[in-house]
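User: Sequence in, structure out. Go.
Assistant: Echoing your sequence, followed by the structure tokens.
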Amino acid sequence: MSELKTVVTGGAGFIGSHLVDELLADGHQVTVIDNFSTGRPENLVHQKDNPNLSLIEADITEEETIITYFKDIDWVFHMAALADIVPSIQHPQDYFRTNVDGTFSVLEASRKAKIKRFVYAASSSSYGIPDVYPTPENASIHPEYPYALTKYLGECLALHWGRVYKLPVVSLRFFNVYGPRARTSGTYGAVFGVFLSQKVHGKPYTVVGDGTQTRDFTFVTDVANACITAAKSNLSCEVMNVGSGNTYSINHLVELMEGDITYIPKRPGEPECTYADTTKIQKLLEWKPSVSFEEGVKIMLEHINEWENAPLWTPKKIENATKDWFKYLSK
């Protein structure tokens, strides 16, 4: 494939930076737009001398600022978003502004620039607590908290722009993405970051409930590959799950990571299982993941030094950080 010009919003973030690596490895010109609210420049420091990379500090909600970077662009990957459950409950306006207004701004810049492909990073959290496992794309949508809702509203916008303005949009619903460069600071969040920091500091893993709950842990390079595969396709206005093809218990994760356990209370609004039905993406894109869970955990442990300065979460700190979670999501 000839060299293409691409924009990656949120390209200094966890998933975005891995996507940037793949695009650059394929020889494409990449413009990253990131306001560094959650993305980190060090995620791309290894690419700083790459002449095909432009790193722009800008806010996606400001269309008049970012639109200039969409001129003559072929592909847009919209990865920028605010994530995590608790802060979305505490600061819903920030999440709406970034994840909904920001998506509107990026879609409009893309439409006006007549870009050739638009890939939206959607979230499996839009399913809420599913009725069906593995969960297909036509399952009911039941967002349990503002983060999930705003990501789903962003998807609705993207698909609407695809239908009305014929913007070639594909929306990919990511399931439990993990891998190196996962965010290590700030709000209490994903299990891998919590556990790796605890392992670095020789502390027990804080396992929610009895640890039998399962998650469709999907390795970040597989997710980046799915994004590029979608961009190469001729599909439009399609929604597809991106998952590992399996689901794994937290207890199994602890076995692989080795260490002591302390149990903390189950939380409202969390499913017992996340498990993507990936039949559609396998059929339409011939995509399937290549990194096994065991291999992915091994890679994470090899990068464990990344979590040396990450917050160390104790049961008490978690209890304090998740008070609003219990307050608003308990039935």
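User: And one key feature?
Assistant: The first strand starts at residue 5 and ends at 9.
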